[in-house]
Structures are given as structure tokens and as C-alpha cells.
């Protein structure tokens, strides 16, 4: 995720950014386009956040988009905001489209509060996966958190851990942070709250998802502050873009896990089938139709399994 979330208007990005979804909005101005979302400032001081079907991996926006992805992310986030409402407030003001907004934005656009976003990516991990595997193999730690010996990819951790990262601009890479670095950046009191909230959200999400046969291996959340200092859950939450979702019935530590998230796309990009090397400096190849279809299927299935609702 990037600074595209509700909150302080980000600094201009020094490279081309994706085109916003077309369509005029009377009385509104386009503020920012990130890897997935487009942000518009409304006349009443709120923001309109539109989730596109774009998909990103390895700091690149890929082609083509994944049909219905933006709607899945929006609907699933709204569902999760309800499940988490007793933990902290969220940024949703309205799900109604403002007058003049394109009809195709229905189901993928929400009106949100303008917040001052915390300049830290708040990540919780309950399992060893992704960049955590290489960090653990190199040092026995992830973001400065010492883990027991003998873990393998896919292992459950003894307890969930807070593994924050920097919040990089589009085209740059988020870097791991130690907790002491978060304290130095935002102060000890706020750092402690960020850790507490992130782990509370993860634990609640893991508990609810496990009951539906899904492991939440890790997740990333965005937190902003109101003018009075209240911390607010923003952007998206517990989606296939911001989390790793694994089928509980096939979980087998010792290697990569089947998933309902965009890890499938990441895996294809670094497979012999794609022929692409993320370190090459070249743009990634176009996703084949079968990869697009399989990715959409995973996103929809995650929504339906978690919520018990039919996507359509």
C-alpha cells in the first residue's frame, strides 16, 4: 500500500503514475493515483477512494487488470471494518456514490475521512512467509524480533509479531523496520499503540478467518489520525492484496502454500513460464489470460469463503 490512502495529500511522485479511472466528478479534484486506488478530494472536505482492477507485484503495476478485483477489495474491506469496529474506528463515511460519479464506480468507491496518515506500514505476521523467510534464514530474526530455531517456510510462529516497514512511494520498495526505529520516527507512545492495534486486528482477523477454513498468515494495515488524535483504521483491511490467505485444510509447513491472494501472481512472475527476473530492471511481462482468470477466481473465492456471501 502507498500514501494513496485517505489522509494527508502525498508528495508528487517523480515517475509516471497509472491513469485515474475516467469520468468527471463535479466539484471534486483528482488528488492521487497509486498502484491500485485513485483518490479524489470532494468539496465537503472528505475524500472519494476508488479501487481499480489494477494489480501490482514487485513494485510494478501489471497488465492487464484483474476483472472485479477492485469491487472484491472494497466489499471485503467493508465487511471487515464491521467485524473490527469494536477495536478502533474506521475511515468510511459513506458507500453512496457522489452525484456525477461514473456509474461503473458503484461497488468500488467509498467516501472516507481525510486523515493524517501514520508514516509506517503496520504489518503483523503469524506465520513465516514472504520476505520473512529470507530474513529468518539469514539472522534468525524478522524486523529485529528473535524467533525460535527450526522454523521453516509456512511455520506458525509462537505468537503473532509486529514487523513494520517503511512506507515507500510508488516504484520504490518498503524496507523492514525494527521497533526501535518506529519509536524513533513516531515516538514511543504512538509506536506502542500501532503495535497493539496491528496485533489486535491480526488476531481478530485470524480467528474469524480460521472458522471459515482460511489461515491469515500475515496482514498489513494503514492507520491514520483525526485532528483530535484518534487513531483510525484506513485504506483496505484483510484483503487478498494486503494479506496472505492460505487454505487451512492444505496447510503444510516446509514450502510455499496454496493461496487465495496475489502470491499466485508473484509466483508466476518469477517462474520459468514468465521468463522475467525482478532484478533485471525490465518491466514484467503481460499476464496470460489463464493467470488473470485464476487470480480473479482466488480473489472471489476468498470473499465468498470469508463472508458467506455470493459475489455477483
Can you offer a commentary on this structure?
- This protein has 312 residues and is of the alpha+beta class.
- The chain has two domains: 29-114, Phosphorylase Kinase, domain 1; 117-307, ATP-grasp fold, B domain (D-amino Acid Aminotransferase, Chain A, domain 1, 2-Layer Sandwich), CATH 3.30.470.
- It is 26% helix and 22% strand.
- It has six helices and 15 strands.
- The protein has helices at residues 69-83, 131-139, 179-186, 188-210, 263-269, 289-307; strands at residues 29-33, 37-41, 47-51, 55-57, 60-62, 92-94, 109-112, 116-117, 122-127, 141-142, 145-146, 156-162, 214-225, 231-234, 243-247.
- The strands form four sheets. Strands 8, 9, 12, 13, 14 and 15 form a six-stranded antiparallel β-sheet that branches. A five-stranded antiparallel β-sheet has the order 1-2-3-7-6. A two-stranded antiparallel ribbon has the order 4-5.
- A hairpin with a 2-residue loop joins strand 4 (55-57) and strand 5 (60-62).
- Helix 1 packs parallel to helix 6 (289-307).
- The chain starts with 28 loop residues before the first strand and ends in a 5-residue tail after the last helix.
- 42% of the residues are buried.
- Residues 1-23 have low confidence and may be disordered.
Task: Set down the secondary structure blueprint.
Blueprint: E1 29-33, E2 37-41, E3 47-51, E4 55-57, E5 60-62, H1 69-83, E6 92-94, E7 109-112, E8 116-117, E9 122-127, H2 131-139, E10 141-142, E11 145-146, E12 156-162, H3 179-186, H4 188-210, E13 214-225, E14 231-234, E15 243-247, H5 263-269, H6 289-307
Antiparallel strand pairs: 1-2, 2-3, 3-7, 4-5, 6-7, 8-13, 9-12, 9-13, 10-11, 13-14, 13-15
Helix pairs in contact: 1-6, 3-4
Amino acid at each position: 500500500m502507498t500514501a494513496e490512502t485517505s489522509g494527508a495529500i502525498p508528495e508528487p511522485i517523480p515517475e509516471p503514475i497509472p491513469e485515474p479511472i475516467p469520468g468527471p466528478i463535479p466539484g471534486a479534484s483528482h488528488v492521487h493515483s497509486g498502484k491500485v486506488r485513485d483518490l479524489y478530494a470532494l468539496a465537503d472536505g472528505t475524500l472519494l477512494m476508488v479501487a481499480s482492477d489494477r494489480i501490482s507485484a514487485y513494485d510494478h503495476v501489471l497488465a492487464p487488470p484483474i476483472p472485479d478485483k477492485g469491487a472484491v477489495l472494497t466489499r471485503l474491506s467493508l465487511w471487515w471494518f464491521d467485524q473490527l469496529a469494536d477495536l478502533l474506528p474506521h475511515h468510511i463515511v459513506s458507500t453512496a456514490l457522489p452525484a456525477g460519479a461514473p456509474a461503473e464506480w458503484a461497488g468500488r468507491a467509498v467516501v472516507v475521512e481525510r486523515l493524517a496518515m501514520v508514516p509506517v506500514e503496520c504489518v503483523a505476521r503469524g506465520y513465516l512467509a514472504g520476505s520473512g523467510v529470507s530474513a529468518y534464514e539469514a539472522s534468525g530474526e524478522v524486523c529485529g524480533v528473535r524467533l525460535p530455531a527450526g522454523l521453516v517456510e509456512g511455520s506458525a510462529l509462537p505468537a503473532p509479531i509486529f514487523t513494520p516497514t517503511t512506507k515507500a512511494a510508488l516504484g520504490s520498495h518498503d524496507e523492514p523496520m525494527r521497533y526501535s526505529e518506529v519509536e524513533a520516527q513516531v515516538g514511543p507512545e504512538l509506536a506502542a499503540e500501532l503495535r497493539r492495534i496491528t496485533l489486535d486486528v491480526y488476531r481478530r482477523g485470524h480467528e474469524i478467518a480460521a472458522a471459515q477454513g482460511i489461515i491469515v498468515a500475515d496482514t498489513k494495515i494503514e492507520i491514520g489520525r483525526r485532528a483530535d488524535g484518534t487513531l483510525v483504521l484506513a485504506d483496505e483491511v484483510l484483503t487478498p492484496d494486503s494479506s496472505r490467505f492460505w487454505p487451512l485444510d492444505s496447510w503444510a509447513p516446509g514450502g510455499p502454500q496454496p493461496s487465495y491472494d496475489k502470491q499466485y501472481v508473484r509466483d508466476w512472475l518469477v517462474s520459468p513460464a514468465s521468463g522475467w527476473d525482478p532484478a533485471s530492471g525490465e518491466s514484467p511481462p503481460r499476464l496470460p489470460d489463464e493467470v488473470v482468470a485464476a487470480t480473479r477466481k482466488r480473489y472471489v473465492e476468498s470473499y465468498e469463503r470469508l463472508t458467506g456471501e455470493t459475489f455477483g
